[in-house]
Amino acid sequence: MKITSVSVILMLGLVSSLFAQQPSRPSAASQPSVHEDALNPSPVDPKSDPDIDMFVNDYRNSTPRTEYGAMVFYDILTPRGAGDMMRPVTKGAVLSVMIAVSRATLEAGATATGRMQAGRREALIDVEGAGTITVNGKTYPVASGSYFQLTPDVDFTLTNTGRVPMVFYVRTEPLPASFKIPAFEVVNRYDNDRVFGAHWTHSCDMVAAGPDTRRTFPPMTFCSMSPYSMPQPHSHPGEEVWIQVEGVTTLSLGKRLLPLRPGQAYRIPPDGVTAHSNLNLTDRMTKILYLGPIDRPAENTSIIARGLPLVDNYSRLENRPLDLPTEQDVAMYTVNWHDAFPQIRYGNMYVRDMLTSLSGSDPLHPTRTGAVLSNAAMVRFGMLEPYSKAHPTPGEPSDIQDIFIVNSGDGLITSGGKTIPLSRDKVVIVPPGVKYEITAGSDYMTFYIVGEKLPEGSTPASSLSVIDHRSGPARTADWVDTEHTLASKEDGLSQYTSVTRVDMSSEMAMTRPTSTPAGVEEIWIATDGDVDMLFGRHLRKLPAGTAYRVPPTGITARAHINTSGEPASFIRLLK
Questions:
Q1: 76 touches 102 (CB < 8 A)
Q2: Could you tell me which of 268, 263, 231 has the C-alpha nearest to residue 246?
Q3: Residues 276, 265: contact at Cβ < 8 Å?
Q4: Residue spans in the chain of domains classed CATH 2.60.120.10
């Protein structure tokens, strides 16, 4: 099956963007020292951020119009008109080059006839129903998955031969005067193999583009997403539109998360740093349509004004095609305490070790799951029964100081003749050799405990510290996180610069994907909530009680995704 020459010319540039060869993975010794992402790092600011809601629209919001005698069109996206391109005044009025992105229907038994008006073309794909189209005396079958285009040089007759309406998505755009109109053809997406791996997880329909066997996309490209997967967040400077066709996705657009259902479409704001990704958080396949850029419009001026280069892809989140044998095994870096074996430590405390000291010599390739720490001996979960007591026991290492972070419950700690109350988010730093006794109250107390290594030759403190910074200032980070420092170097931490409580609200939200460079140890513990996580190029569940270290590659992305409707909280340690 051949593709039309219009498709070839329009989409050749897209292939190089989606499937460009990327640099080989850097070695551990040559890791970049900065975050490898170009996603907008600034805090959420409604005054300066693109108005994301205006770039998304639903065909159900539009007034129907009839074309070709019987086809009913519902325009989803339309030209933006004058004004600030980042802040449209009408929902869905966001197009710069295309004339319309629409949903069209033809009722059972109905016939549409006509000719495309001069200077335009329409590319259509059938997503429901079946019929025929007749052009120049030749009749072609049209079924779900069929592409064709209407141009000003042909009359057509489209007939619905089925018992249900035919449903199409339609791309209307200018036809340059110098453009050579190709012969009419119907191409069905099911007649060609799909290509997997565009932006990590897209599986898109592609067809051969001539004798040189290069491959390209039709004008409207079906991309499927497997259950529970996430494509690479990225941005483009040209006019790029996506339509949700089947199933539901969670749209990450800029710094927002939005539910996307069939019949909705969006355009990526063309500022060069507004990233997009359609997350499939369901257990079913989902299908979306890609409408790629057909040129580089005058909006490039806004990108240049921001000091950004005119490139095809503004994301640097590891865009190489997925190669499992060389992929960072993120499963080695995460453990939930429910999966660890129970032990008794500190006299009467039930503990589960989640993360432990590095197994092997390479922090990028640990040889045992969870054995990933360089600056701590362990990260563990601890539980103390009501009225039970925890205390130091003989044989504890002399080069480890314990950091107890109270997760739930109330109790008392006694040391050096002083008794201090304990409750959630208080931090106790216990140097080696210091005597103490923690007594739980009338309910269970739970802790997250970090065994922090002391530098060689250092002198431990002679007393413990109980830190209560719960009333201290909070700050916003990574778009949507609220960070609150619980302890710092000034409070007695040895290796880590801070212990931080990080909260996400109950609103649908995704944190900015970031990565950790070589030499940095970043540890996260999920303490509350039911969230998902982008880890490397994988989506993973992140239930409460899970601890992980971000692999220090400089290109392994990490982002939290909260669509649960409930708040979520974490503890982060950073060196």
A1: yes
A2: 263
A3: no
A4: 5-18+51-322, 326-574
CATH for 326-574 is: 2.60.120.10
Q: CATH topology for 5-18+51-322?
A: Jelly Rolls (2.60.120)
**CB-based contact 465:431 (threshold 8 Å):** no
What's the pLDDT score for residue 260? 96
**Residue 455: exposure state from Cβ atoms within 10 A (0-12, 13-18, ≥19):** exposed
- For the record, the structure tokens of 299 come out as 């909006």
Q: Which residues contact 240 (CB under 8 A, 6 or more apart)?
A: 267, 268, 290, 291, 292, 293
Task: Compute the mean pLDDT over every residue in the chain, rounded to the nearest whole number.
Answer: 85
- With H, G, I as helix, E, B as strand and everything else as coil, classify residue 26: coil
What's residue 350's pLDDT?
97
Predicted confidence band of residue 561 (pLDDT cuts 50, 70, 90): very high
- 516-521 average pLDDT score: 87
At 210, the pLDDT band (50, 70, 90 cuts) reads very low
Give the pLDDT confidence of 380-418 residue by residue, as tens digits.
999 999 999 999 999 899 999 999 999 999 999 999 999
Looking at residues 143-155, what average pLDDT do you find?
91
Burial 164-178 (b: 16+ CB within 10 A, else e): ebbbbbbbbbebeee
552 HSE (CA, 13 A, CB side)? 20
What contacts 82, CB < 8 A, 6 or more positions away?
Answer: none
3-state class of 386 per DSSP? coil
- Which H helix or E strand runs over 392? none
The residue type of 476 is T
Helix (H, G, I), strand (E, B) or coil at 29: helix
3-state DSSP call for residue 213? coil
- Terminal alpha carbon distance of the chain: 57
On the question of pLDDT at 108 being above 60, the answer is yes
Q: Give bridge partners of residue 383 from the DSSP assignment.
A: 350, 446
* Listed residue (196, 183, 180, 169) closest to 74, CA to CA: 169
Cα(165)–Cα(157) distance, integer angstroms: 16
Only one residue has tokens 């001539």, namely 210
Q: Which amino acid is at 547?
A: A
What tokens appear for 170 in the block? 């339609």
pTM of the model: 0.82
CA nearest neighbour of 349 among 425, 399, 407: 407
Looking at per-residue confidence, does 5 or 146 come out higher?
146
- Map residue 43 onto helix, strand or coil: coil
